[in-house]
Amino acid sequence: MGKSRSLPAAGKRPLPEDIALFRKAVADAVPLVSDKVHHEPPPPLPIPRQLQQDEAAALADSLAPAPLETLLEGGDELSYLKPGLPRTVLRDLRRGRWVTQEQLDLHGLNRDEARAMLGQFLAESLANGHRCLRIIHGKGLRSPGREPVLKELARNWLANRPEVLAYCQALGADGGGGAVIVLLKAAR
Questions:
Q1: Could you tell me the pTM of the whole model?
Q2: Residue 80: inside a domain
Q3: Per residue in 85-119, pLDDT tens?
Q4: Any idea what the CATH number is for the domain that residue 168 is in?
Q5: Domain count, the chain
Q6: How far apart are CA 184 and CA 131, in angstroms?
Q7: DSSP 3-state assignment of 151?
Q8: Using a CB cutoff of 8 Å and minimum separation of 24, what contacts does 28-34 make?
Q9: Are 171 and 73 in contact (CB under 8 A)?
Q10: Where in the sequence is the domain holding 167, given as residue range(s)?
């Protein structure tokens, strides 16, 4: 056997002859292919958490008692029918069988401005042949005492207009207690 050499001390670099000798010794070596596989657990299935939260919220909302205002919407207390007309006119208006053609929003107006604007709006609508209108008077949430001042005034003004055949409180989707649907007579 040949002369054995000792390994270099820790922290020292091997001599170039040692490196050359090592490379010559392993020149025909073939790297081993490992038969080990790294296994990761499969990722968890996605959980639609937002969908679950939305469905839980919808269920909770559907089980909650309805507000009193919702229960009263569409009642007789918020309607007008010109004397001599059949009740079916008002029933059809309440059920949304008339298509709303124009609307007027009275939010933020004082009573004088609201009355003038309402009169002008009715005259223009009649001249343009529009028969079904939505008047948004608001619910009075920002009024003093939270009273719907324009609601009562608008109802009285409408009932005293000759071109108004009927009106009723709007459906919830159209403004509910904050709006009325108005039916005008046909233009000549």
A1: 0.57
A2: yes
A3: 899 998 888 888 888 999 999 888 888 888 899 99
A4: 3.30.1370.110
A5: 1
A6: 5
A7: helix
A8: none
A9: yes
A10: 75-184
